[in-house]
Request: fold
Amino acid sequence: MKYKRILLKLSGEALSGDLDYGIENNTINFIAKELKSIYNKNIEIAVVVGGGNIFRGVSAATKGMDRASADYMGMLATVINSLALQDALEKYSIPTRVLSAIEMREIAEPYIRRRALRHFEKGRVVIFAAGTGNPYFTTDTAAALRAVEIGSEVLLKATKVNGVYDKDPMKFADAVKFDHLTYSEAIAKNLRVMDMTAFSLCKENNLPIIVFNMLQTDSIIDAVSGKPIGTLIKEDL
Reply:
């Protein structure tokens, strides 16, 4: 395996499968099974899950809701998704802990960096919930921040498409896929793979990003193995 400690960023929409919203059971079980394939290779796994399948703060804010309140509701949605993923992973006998940036001790541990590292030592998967715990920050930023804090060797951003394109491949048949990009190129081309705060964190800490389709069988083990998959974003290609 090329990487020994990884952080996987899952969008909330990835958990909804073919549903318009919510959590689709077959999809979350598929994701858990894929994670088991790298867990069995002794890879240390951290996960950040979005909440867009349940509630999206920015969308609510554009419709008149206070942005901070909407973002806090979105953070709570990520906790729901994190607990669902924990349940799916533990059904595959993978010990998992949810660490929340917003304290809710009855259902999750509070986020403490040293505690997260200790869970890795004990062979547990760690799911970071509730974003950064602050409004106005996306779960992409939370993923980049946590990845840097725990010393992850790569940030794996799972999407419904197999990489980064110059335009939406779902809408444009002539969309062109990039196999490699630098952070500067991704920002200059305004590709919107992640928000600028997340990109800046990755760039400043030289953290490579792999954008790939998580819903393809064996895609995550290929990514962790270093096989060419999706789009690799790093400063020195």
Notes: The chain has one domain: 5-233. The longest strand covers residues 5-10. The CA atoms of residues 167 and 175 lie 6 Å apart. Residues 67-90 form the longest helix (24 residues).
